[in-house]
Amino acid sequence: MQRGADPIQPGVERGADPELFREVFGRFATGVAVVTSAGPAGAGGMTANALCSLSLDPLLVLVCFENGARTLPIVREAGRFALNLLSSSQKHLAGVFASKLPEAEKLEGVEHRIERGVPIIAGSLAWTICELRELIAGGDHTIAIGEVVALALGSGDPLLWYSGRYHGWAASPPRPAG
Q1: What mean pLDDT comes out for the span 55-83?
Q2: Alpha carbon 116 to chain centroid distance?
Q3: 175 in a domain, yes or no?
Q4: Among 7, 28, 63, 155, which is least packed, fewest CB within 10 Å?
Q5: Quick check: helix, strand or coil at residue 78?
Q6: What residues does 128 pair with on adjacent strands?
Q7: What are phi and psi of 99, to 5 degrees?
Q8: How far apart are CA 155 and CA 178, in angstroms?
Q9: In which domain, by residue range, is 43 found?
Q10: For residues 33 and 95, what is the distance between their CA atoms, to the nearest angstrom?
Q11: Per the domain annotation, does 21 fall within a domain?
């Protein structure tokens, strides 16, 4: 199997190379978010980059959870979650929420407030609060669809995930006129 700069490569049989699959989609730069939730059993959160807006009418988002994600049962039980879109200055938070720390410890020392029953992380680029509408099995992940019930904008530059690493925003220089 060829791995190189040549954009035209022979195809790969479906499911034949999960590592190449991961590399291919690692070339798709995404923003980074922390999914937070809180329920009777406590609060928690996880770092996510597999999320997107889904619908404008009604306002829907989707986020993907690894089936074994410890945040998923919290979201399921609470019936709601927040998406906290991280700024480039919050790279350390991406690491905390991606760690194996117990869920109850992830929010310790993280500046946040509770709004509509879910943690909102201070300094986020933007956030949404979502009511859980549906959970859909998707292979080794579970897709959560949430209806947005509150949202707000912050400020700053985005934290990005590309090729297996976090990156800050590097704006392109302005094009010369003419």
Answers
A1: 98
A2: 20
A3: no
A4: 7
A5: helix
A6: 83, 151
A7: -80, 175
A8: 32
A9: 29-163
A10: 11
A11: no
Is residue 1 assigned to a domain?
no
Contacts for 143 with CB less than 8 Å, ≥ 6 apart: 62, 63, 64, 65, 135, 136, 137
Q: How many domains does the chain have?
A: 1
Transcribe 91-135 into DSSP letters: HHHHHHHHS-S-HHHHTTT--EEEETTEEEETT-SEEEEEEEEEE
Read off the pLDDT of residues 90-114 as tens digits, 9 standing for 90 and up. Answer: 999 999 999 999 998 999 999 999 9
55/60 Cα distance (integer angstroms): 5
Q: Name, in order, each residue with C-beta under 8 angstroms of 58's C-beta and a sequence gap of 6 or more.
A: 147
Statement: residue 172 has pLDDT above 70: no
pTM of the model: 0.86
Region 24-30: what's the mean pLDDT? 87
- The closest of 11, 85, 1 to 48, measured between CA atoms, is 85
Say which CATH number the domain at 102 has: 2.30.110.10
Using alpha carbons, select from 36, 31, 3 the residue that is nearest to residue 19.
Answer: 3
Per-residue confidence (pLDDT) for residue 20, from 0 to 100: 87
CA–CA separation, 159 and 169 (whole Å): 7
